[in-house]
Amino acid sequence: MISLCAEEGAPRLDRFLADRFPEIPRAKWDVHVRTGDVKVNGQAVTKGGVKLRPGDLIETELPALAPPAAHLEAEDLPLPSLFEDAHLWIVDKPSGMVVHPGPGHAGGTVVNALLHRLKAPVVVEADGEDLEDAEELATGWPGLVHRLDRYTTGCLCLAKTAEAQRAIQAQFKARTVEKRYLALVRHSPRLPQLGSLLVDEPIARHKQDRLRMVVAAGGRPAQTRIRVLARTTSIALVECELLTGRTHQIRVHLAHLRAPLMGDPLYGGPGRWKDVDGGALLLPHPLLHAWKLSVDHPVTGARINAEAPIPEPFRALARSLGLPEF
């Protein structure tokens, strides 16, 4: 545990920490603060913008840094392209593929595949200061501007130059990138019957279970537009449009509607499922597909509309549950 004392004229908390530890980006400190890992005068704080007063005692552990990019291996991995030029690569991420290296996943990730695609030893530098939540967590990895969970399939946008990365990150911050997902969920009367429903509920990290996020007053603003495409008495196929980019946002908002993602043990969706013939179904992970992504090209400004084909296992499961073909 590191203890620091604020002096006269100390800046806001995240800047104070970034000034003391310049090797750690301020965006990384902001995430560290919001996860409750920094205390001011013995009390955990959750906002990096907290103003410090002379004599305030700051206590924290140093946040873990991403491994140095120079240690990453370029790997020739099968990764279907949805769009590619000299600046961008939009891929169709398969289920089970991790986006960037981490504990237990030193290789075989999207980042490793991108480095092979670049065919250059120089990696893309990130300038992700002030990005928020899910996008912010991508900061510091070559080419990443947002993330998908390990078992989420579909559209993932990657930058091939530092300029493109900064431009796309700015679009994510400005919320001009359109992201639409398909999800199989437990049917709930709180889902929209006609048209769409805007879920406008703030999200914060769970106070006891640090792996989970929850709808909570005082959390960060989060908006998801949800539309039901097909349903049975127990299952629904929904389209989710992300208007913000909070961690686990779709999963949290669907659980808030009592319509958790099928196969999602973290947010209440494992349960017992049966197909139309009464057979038991084993769902090892959440059923979520990043279906469509629209972004402005960082150089030409042209709108790029990418669509990832719906995986056949996703379609097959929907059919087995009695949903009509889509």
Query: In DSSP terms, counting alpha (H) and pi (I) runs of 4 or more, how many helices?
Result: 7
By CATH's scheme, which homologous superfamily of the largest domain applies?
Pseudouridine synthase
Number of domains: 3
Q: Would you identify the regions where 5 or more consecutive residues have pLDDT less than 50?
A: 66-70, 121-137
Biggest beta-sheet profile: 9 strands, mixed
Structure, explained:
There is one protein chain. With 326 residues, the chain is of the alpha+beta class. The chain folds into 3 domains: 2-60, Structural Genomics Hypothetical 15.5 Kd Protein In mrcA-pckA Intergenic Region, Chain A (Roll); 71-174, 2-Layer Sandwich (Pseudouridine synthase); 181-289 and 315-320, Pseudouridine synthase. Helix content is 18%, strand content 26%. The chain has 7 helices and 17 strands. The chain has helices at residues 13-20, 26-34, 110-118, 133-136, 162-174, 249-256, 312-320; strands spanning 2-5, 38-40, 43-44, 57-60, 81-84, 88-93, 153-159, 178-186, 196-200, 203-205, 213-215, 223-231, 235-242, 273-274, 280-281, 288-296, 303-307. The strands form 4 sheets. Strands 5, 6, 7, 8, 9, 12, 13, 16 and 17 form a 9-stranded mixed sheet that branches. A hairpin with a 2-residue loop joins strand 2 (38-40) and strand 3 (43-44). The longest helix is centred in the middle third of the chain and has 13 residues, at 162-174. It is globular.
